[in-house]
Amino acid sequence: KITSGMDPRLNQKGCTLIVLAEWKKPVYGNEGIKLITTSIRRNSPIHIDSKIHHNNLINNILAKIEANVASADDALMLDNLGFVAETNSCNIFMIKNNMVFTPNADACLPGITRMKVIQICSMNNIIIHLKNLSLTEFYNADEVFTTGTMGELVKVEMIDGRKIINKNINPSVFEIIQNHFKKLTETEGEEII
Q1: pTM for the full predicted model
Q2: Residue 40 structural domain
Q3: At what angle do helices 173-187 and 112-123 cross, to 10 degrees?
Q4: Gap between the Cα atoms of 155 and 166, Å rounded
């Protein structure tokens, strides 16, 4: 068999695509997760565009290995300029002074769950900003959470050993968003039995 290697014209039979639909429980429970900032950077769009689902996730895998070694749940990845991009498997949000912030989708996948959270904020008069965010801004956030298909919305309790201190606002902005998200998932999509 000839593989494409460096020249896609050598792949005479095309690629084989296998799609397997399966349901899995969310990866994380209701308790918060711990993140470490990894030394592995998220790919820049000038190298491999993060907006494309592709099989070249070696950076994300190496970042997850680094998190595993550090006994963290996931790795927080920075872009090539040093701004927060996402975790190795999820998009990330922070809340400060009742406003929601998430990194620009330059070096992260603009995920479906991420887009739902942005919609929820817009529809419920929750101020949301998409911008470059520093690690220090995340350290000083009131709340931090991740979004992803396999985790839905998960609260972050700690980044690099620093506890994310919620000001005990009841309900918190995260809880408001989470409740709206839960209502959406109950009314949209198809039930899997």
Answers
A1: 0.86
A2: 22-187
A3: 110
A4: 11
